[in-house]
């Protein structure tokens, strides 16, 4: 991942030294397991633990010759050892080390993401409660529909993020497995005890079965989960972007002191961070596609998945963490303009209350078809001529006969649309 989109936590997690340290953990735990079985001297394990040193530059130098990163890694370790070096990588195949370590790294990455997601969920909950009864026009097909509340929009985002949290927990459980089962998964040269021992030490479960590698449906689940989470973030960002349009301006992403919106136009306050979320979420979705392509490997394994995952898994976990941080800041400092919301509700001449009028006429005895045609006739006049909808209705004797006095006026009260907000919030547990 380019430095621009890295977070400190993910940068540290995915750097080469951290990766090789995880590899070394697997190697040392495997040696310990073999020593428990009496196949490796305990003093050799002590010396391996004492003398094993990670030298990233030396590993890369050796890899230039070997063209094999695990061989380069083990040879670099051996350069600092005596006779105990013969027990390094004893009975193992490369993927025993690489896949088990990768699973542990992904698990750690998902834990970092979970912490940030939990914080965002709390922010969404607080903001939903803050704007619980703030009326805003609802839009379907981009066209004014009926009033809703800004709090309910935020509550919906909260609800979707809690589903993302559950998906993330499931994906983390699926990926939290290791395998130390040898070249084709038969345990021919490494006893099952070694796998159990190493996995327990690494905080993983043994895969119930494997080939030379862990099966990539697990990784696809992780990557698709991150893509779905990115989709929710994109959804929220897109909503803010639309509501920030100059002719709408109901909410606005935060614009901080000293920030510039345009090199040419000093007045500009662009939703650049929301646009960044929308753009980078596309990377998460595209990376998920490559994870699906990694599932059907040849026989007990090929290497076509490996090069892809060196890019996509660190990138997707890093981007997800980065975007969660940005979105949390946007929601925390969101600029909200309730007066503009009221003004926009009234921009369509009161047409957004048409269903309320329709239903009241039905209650008064008209058929649905008759009531619909009657209301639509005046609604179309309002649209086409820019006339106040309620005033047009009041020119119709039949409507006034059925809805006399203030009965018609009551159909144009936004409070009507807020009456079940408490029920929805209660159902959500917020």
TrEMBL record:
Domain Adenylosuccinate lyase C-terminal: residue ranges: 349-429
Entry EC no(s): 4.3.2.2
Pathway: Purine metabolism; AMP biosynthesis via de novo pathway; AMP from IMP: step 2/2; Purine metabolism; IMP biosynthesis via de novo pathway; 5-amino-1-(5-phospho-D-ribosyl)imidazole-4-carboxamide from 5-amino-1-(5-phospho-D-ribosyl)imidazole-4-carboxylate: step 2/2
InterPro entries tied to this protein: AdenyloSucc_lyase_C, Fumarase/histidase_N, Fumarate_lyase_CS, Fumarate_lyase_fam, Fumarate_lyase_N, L-Aspartase-like, Pur_lyase
Pfam families linked to this entry: ADSL_C, Lyase_1
Name of the top EC class for this enzyme: lyase
GO molecular function: (S)-2-(5-amino-1-(5-phospho-D-ribosyl)imidazole-4-carboxamido) succinate lyase (fumarate-forming) activity; N6-(1,2-dicarboxyethyl)AMP AMP-lyase (fumarate-forming) activity
Keywords attached to this entry: Amino-acid biosynthesis, Lyase, Purine biosynthesis
A cellular-component GO term for this protein: cytosol
Top-level taxonomic group: Bacteria
One GO BP annotation of this record: 'de novo' AMP biosynthetic process
Reaction catalysis annotation: N(6)-(1,2-dicarboxyethyl)-AMP = fumarate + AMP; (2S)-2-[5-amino-1-(5-phospho-beta-D-ribosyl)imidazole-4-carboxamido]succinate = 5-amino-1-(5-phospho-beta-D-ribosyl)imidazole-4-carboxamide + fumarate
PANTHER family in alphabetical order: ADENYLOSUCCINATE LYASE
Family, similarity comment: Belongs to the lyase 1 family. Adenylosuccinate lyase subfamily.
Name of the featured protein: Adenylosuccinate lyase
Lineage of origin: Bacteria, Bacillati, Bacillota, Clostridia, Natranaerobiales
